[in-house]
Amino acid sequence: MKFGIREKLFFSFTIVIVLPLIIISILLYYFTIQLENDPRIRDLEKVKLGRYEIVDIIEDNYSLISQDEKLYKIIKPLLEKYQLNLAIQDLDGYILFDSENIRGVLNNTEKYESSEESRVKTKTVVNMFHNNQKISRAIFYKYRDEKAIADKARQYRFFTYGFGIICVTGLIVLLTWYMSGTILKPLKELSKATDNIANGNLDYEIKYNRNDEIGKFCMGFNTMRIKLKESLENQVKYEKSRKELIASISHELRTPLTSIKGYVEGLEEGIASNKEMFERYISVIKDKTEKLDHLIDDLFQYSQMELGKLHMNIVTVDSRELFQDIFKSLENEFIDDIISFTVQRPFPKANIMVDRYRISQVIDNIIQNARRYIDDNGRITAGANLKDKYIEVYIKDNGKGIKKEDLENIFEKFYRGEKSRARKYGGVGLGLSICKYIIEAHGGRLWVESKEGEGSTFYFTIPL
């Protein structure tokens, strides 16, 4: 069970209150036992029994009440044994017998130890009966060392309460130290982190790994810091991409438009003097127009993709029929090409839910990229395999491959790899980004494996 700050504080304050009380109670009990076992305290119980023993003897010899010395001699051994003095008082309050006076007369001394200031005289009254009738009262006096017993009790009390105060003080110090480590330290860390973030340092991490409210708050703060850092990095990257996009669009539009303008001016000036030259001019103008159309289409699809409005017409199709149609059309394009294009058949047969046009667009884009970046007499191989829960499509070429530093960014928007080839074949680096978006919209995955100098293999999956 994990405790939060509230529970920890509750238990801490409870311990500060309860633990000293328990310790004090244990000490009081212990010292009470010690006092009870003190010989002077145990003697008090014996004296109590002795008083009743003396009273019984007096009741049996009550006829000698008027003969002080005889009665005293009978009870003297018990009085000396228990160090008691005795006075007998009748019901009217008259003293009938007083052992102190008799001892003084017999010994010719002062009253028994009455001169010692440190000793205190205590009185106990016991009623005496004869034939079940109350006849008198026996008043017992005992001198005991009150100061010694009081000092002992005071010593025990001082030790008990003193230890309790020390215990409370120690627990308060420990609680303060614990709270400073649990609450104040992370708060200082938070204050320091906010200062760092305010100064632009988004790498400062709060190191507090406890799973309490403050720990969760610190974890949330670190998450917020990371998200803010990523947001700023993405903003910088987006701004850089925007500038690159504007520059690329300007270049990609200017180049074909300049060519188109030049060829149109040539036609206007009558440079194309024969049919063959005229058709060549028209062919170049058409080619440049198609490139512009392709560029505009990419930009349109990118804007739709960013807005989440790229239309998908998902239908259930037969996979074998779908791939047969797509690859058959592509095979026709390579009939007179010096690049070899091979399709591995048969295709797997399964019912899949796809947008036929978008899947065709993905395959065409990957193959056209391979075609652009492959050398003459190169080879492109394509096919599909049936896996447990998806169909895997692959397109492999034996070109120069992709540099390691380009692999991580090849599916990023506006990213173009080898600059010299990118300038040669044009484009703004949106094709593979759009392909990735389309495949992920189908619930699949698009990735590439490549080694520089040995070619590349693109894979994508379509769930069954």
UniProtKB/TrEMBL annotation:
Residues 248-464 form the Histidine kinase domain. Keywords: ATP-binding, Cell membrane, Kinase, Membrane, Nucleotide-binding, Phosphoprotein, Transferase, Transmembrane, Transmembrane helix, Two-component regulatory system. GO terms for molecular function: ATP binding; phosphorelay sensor kinase activity. It is found in: Cell membrane. The chain crosses the membrane at residues 12-32, 158-179. It comes from the Bacteria. GO terms for cellular component: plasma membrane. It catalyses: ATP + protein L-histidine = ADP + protein N-phospho-L-histidine. Its EC number is 2.7.13.3. InterPro entries: HAMP_dom (IPR003660), HATPase_C_sf (IPR036890), HATPase_dom (IPR003594), His_kinase_dom (IPR005467), HisK_dim/P_dom (IPR003661), HisK_dim/P_sf (IPR036097), HssS/ArlS-like (IPR050398), Sig_transdc_His_kin-like_C (IPR004358). It is a multi-pass membrane protein. Residues 181-233 form the HAMP domain. It holds the Pfam family HATPase_c. Its main location: membrane. This is histidine kinase. It comes from Maledivibacter halophilus.
